[in-house]
Amino acid sequence: MLQRQASPRSTDAQRIIEAAIDLVIAQGFRKLTLRDLAQAVGKSTTVIVNLFGAKSGLVLAVGEHALEADAVFHQRFFGAVAGLPASRDTLLALVLRYLRLRAAAEAGFVRVWEALLLDTDLGEARHDLMRRWEAMREAAWRTYLATVPDAADFAAPLTACLVTEQFYAGALLGRTDYEVISAEGLGALVDRALGRDDGPAPATFWYREHLFLPQAPAAGLEVDSMRLKLLDIAADQILAGGVAGVTNRSVSLVAGTSTSTIAYHWPDMRRFVVDAVWHSVFRDLPHYLARRRPDMDPSAATLETWERLMTPTVSINPQAEGFYTRYARLIASICLEARRDPPLQDLAMVLRGPEGGGTFYNSAGVWPTGFDLTRLAATRFALWIKGQALVASATGIPLSGATLKTAATQLVAQQEP
């Protein structure tokens, strides 16, 4: 963290970092420009370059500042309950309070963390920073969970689940349907940490019964149709740069057509973007989530066959990113945009409400028969794999088969033989 000192250089650096954080909160790192930042602090871009070098240097300086602030947040958060036994009620209250505080507008350091999780343009430059950041978060939770017998090792899956839930909370806190469903799912997460059995999932099943899921936007389209071409281009842009990166002009330029083409096929740009979001989900859906089950005897499914099926879905190789890596980034970008564009909250809720549904309803032949994949266990796993995929991408540490299997056994109970 850059400390405030008497020298003009340090004072300028601190002001620039604080102004950069404000701009990141408003628009993210991708739209942050040195020109806008210079105008915000009343300095020339030359001053910023002399202090931080290129934009990547500024981003990392902002990240270091935010990491220090987040470390202080964790110290104060857990310090306030030092010595308090981690019962089911207290642990659930802590999880819910943790998410609420981190979703607050004044938590600018969290917005920096979220932006760095998603900013693939930084490449390896963010890896060391994000490794230290995730180690800090996990260590803070591990220290608290150590007050409960055999619970300390649950810090890793817990913090990964909270990565995904944090994005949802930022977009949806205050909605009754979200708060009921998230409390149910997070309560089950706490139960698992404490070695308790899963209960029923009435809120989750209620939401599913009333949920209307759209059909795949590309269903029935010819492979060479303009409509499908536009959807593919927009889906690629969403997965690369988030929902906000898609404009009529950006899609039309790649398609080599006029800006009136989208208006010809869709009633408005919002409808087109929503269809493109769903297209990006349906297009790359793994076969076991799309009801195309593995060609094998369900009773023969083992943890090893499950590992082989899951590993490609969490690949962080830029040339062959896995479904969950892309899908987690998509969900996070939708949630970020929903904070600025409230009508998108409904879309975010459609994604959060049935979290884990595909895993639960398509488990035969995928999950080992000895695993008790309840509806709430499926939600836990769905939150974990997306959060862990984002962390893997941000830290540059691929998810190994061993990590996948460990998480499966930690998050899903095994039936007695």
UniProtKB/TrEMBL annotation:
Alphabetic keyword roster: DNA-binding
Domain HTH tetR-type: from-to ranges: 10-70
InterPro entries per UniProt: Homeodomain-like_sf, HTH-type_TetR-like_transc_reg, HTH_TetR
Claim: DNA-binding is one of the keywords in the record: yes
UniProt DNA-binding region: 33-52
Pfam families, A to Z: TetR_N
GO MF annotation list: DNA-binding transcription factor activity; transcription cis-regulatory region binding
Family matches, as PROSITE patterns: HTH_TETR_2
Annotated SUPFAM superfamilies: Homeodomain-like
Origin superkingdom: Bacteria
Name of the protein: HTH tetR-type domain-containing protein
Species per Swiss-Prot/TrEMBL record: Brevundimonas mediterranea
